Amino acid sequence: MQADSNASNPPSRPETPLTQSPQRSETYYLETVTFQVEDTLFKVPKVQFMRGSSIFRAMFSLPQSENGEGYAEGSSDLNPLKLEGVEKVDFERLLKVMYPHDVRAEWSHQPNDTWVSVLKLSKMWNFYELHSMAVETLTTATMDPLDRIIVAKTYKIPQWLRTGYNQLITRENPLTPEEGAKVEMTTAMTIAQAREDFLRHQTGRYSTSFDTTYPDGYTVPISLEKLFGQELTVADLEHSYFMAGEFGE
After folding, report:
1. What is the CATH number of the domain that holds 86?
2. How do beta strands 81-82 and 32-37 pair?
3. What is the DSSP string of 87-122?
4. Are residues 83 and 147 in the same domain?
5. Is residue 4 part of a domain?
6. What is the tens place of the pLDDT at every residue in 134-187?
7. Within a domain: residue 26?
8. DSSP codes joined into one string, 193-206
9. What is each CA distance from 68 to 59, 65, 79, 152, 178, in whole angstroms?
10. Which SS3 state, helix, strand or coil, does residue 75 take?
11. Parallel, antiparallel, or unpaired for β 32-37 and 40-45?
């Protein structure tokens, strides 16, 4: 008796032909962009630059120029989007925060230099959320008060100017010659003057009649506002103007 060959081999299911092409996910079908910074190419998802920066959002909305081989700017290594005036180390640090390799790593574990680079480029390109994140992280980070002042002067962070000056004025030791050389002579002289002013009025740590407590919770001598008034006012205005752009878009 001949065995039925179909008994051990179940009938195959006929393939259902696709009636239409698969659709692209609206969320996770990511377009990339190729940047050139100095002598290095970077290829990353475009979405973070589009969402986070009004400047890149406007840039990518414009028609992209093509090179002689038909590649749109930023679409390939042959025609990258060149970021002039940007240092590679700063851009790499920005990308480290925007696209972390280890999703379990906390951003707060990044060194201060990384966050200063994020602060620099986020202000240049209107990444408001990244800028706020950098300010928040560096505010609680351990940083030499003079270094904090220098960064605050560069990027107009008024609360760091106040806390940095306050720490230098009220600490036990005056500015060293090496510290004085890091800032303008007028700044070093004003710090020395404010320190003398503070020490003359000091009873215990502070004289209560010599303090002003600001909404953020830190305390500075009134003489600080008098001696650094113009610089602090400019920093306040510029910082407020920058952050107002977040709500104006």
Report:
1. 3.30.710.10
2. parallel
3. -HHHHHHHHHHHS-S-TTS-GGGS-HHHHHHHHHHH
4. no
5. no
6. 999 999 999 999 999 999 999 999 999 999 998 998 888 889 999 999 999 999
7. no
8. HHHHHHHHH-SSS-
9. 21, 10, 9, 45, 54
10. coil
11. antiparallel
